Amino acid sequence: xxxxxxxxxxxxxxxxxxxxxxxxxxxxMAIITVDYKGVPVTKHSYxxxxxxxxxxxxxxxxxxxxxxxxxxLEAVRTNKPYVYQCHFGIVDIAIPIIIDNQYIGAIxxxxxxxxxxxxxxxxxxTRPPNAETDRRFAALQPEYQSLxxxxxxxxxxxxxxxxxxxxxxxxxxxxxxTTIDMYKKTLSLESPAAxxxxxxxPTYETIQAMQSELSSTLIExxxxxxxxxxxxxxxxxxxxAFDYLYRHKHENIRLQDMASLCHVSPSYFSxxxxxxxxxxxxxxxPRLKIEWAKQLLETTDxxxxxxxxxxxxxxxxxxxxxxxxxxxxxxxxxxxxxxxEHERKL
Length: 346
Description:
It is a single chain. This protein is of the alpha+beta class. It has 2 domains: about 5-175, 2-Layer Sandwich (Beta-Lactamase), CATH 3.30.450; about 225-345, Homeodomain-like (Arc Repressor Mutant, subunit A, Orthogonal Bundle). About 60% of the residues lie in helices and about 10% in strands. Strands 1, 2, 3, 4 and 5 form a 5-stranded mixed sheet that branches. β2 and β3 form a beta hairpin. The chain has 16 helices and 5 strands. The two termini are about 20 Å apart.
């Protein structure tokens, strides 16, 4: 399994652990965060005494590890929280963190028992009968009986809440991380945007303004291999419109605005534009943006939603629909195929 995102670099581990502690207190569940390899990136938040003892036992801890591994794999396979029973019948949840179809880690929560039978759960690992392990389990009965009790409905609600909350927080962190990274790179460029912002610090309060100001410059630096060079019109009347299109890739450009720029009526502009390009304005512009989008997907790790924003699409859903219209596949699948082919050639 592979991932382009490093959870350790994306999130502030100290702040994340405080959030994890708070979630653990509210949900009554023990929680730990792992990266895409299954390696913990945080400590356990409120690990139950029974599970602490079991995981310290050499004869029993291996079964716990098998449960963690199986639960994580099922969560990745289904792309949603996977609720299951461990080898002691304790309820655990594997909650995948998936951004742009990339699995980057998981939240492992649980160490509770159900007070009802409303949730049919698989016991994913079974221990063979063993007198010694049975004796050790019997010795831990007080700790086992003190495990928190939750209803099936509470477990399902918590699983969904953790899934949406953690994926949202990580996606926002990726956006912020990407923006600051782009900001630093842009400062090294000799551009008006870089010069005007050289003295500004990339604080949380300035990130949104920074994104807007740098969009045009950043896109230009990322789209290096594009075969769609700036269009030179055979009709001088249209050239201001083409110049504007190529220099404002991050805007949602309307035909009426381009007609006004060229000092003609929208209907006349539309006829002349179609005669010049062989395509309606409403087809030419999105096709051009999808070509630029392909370059960003190939050369950056920008999330799909940010690629959509950078190219002026109203919302990611419309961007994905437009991309599929021209390329017959989604942006995420296109990126996956490109990376696979690129790695195969290396």
